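Why do we care about 3D structure at all? Because function follows from shape, and shape follows, mostly, from sequence. That is the central idea of this module. The next example makes it concrete: a single protein chain, its amino acid sequence, and then its structure expressed as tokens.
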Amino acid sequence: MNINLMIVLDILIRIILIYFIMMHGIYFLLIMLGALEQKKYHQGIQFREFKRISESPLTTPVSIVISAYNEEKVIVD
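And the structure:
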């Protein structure tokens, strides 16, 4: 193989490796930052906030329909 071709391929492989390491490092950093923000968000949520939201006149009611076959004894209106 030509020595110049080997040098070019070596440089190209190093560039690709550096790109790969940098991109995955950035992705890892973003995942860690997201996990920290998620933890802070969940620690800040209080049950009373959900209660206040559910009692608000602006909250639309939600109906959940579940199919039940031969379950007349346990269904409550």
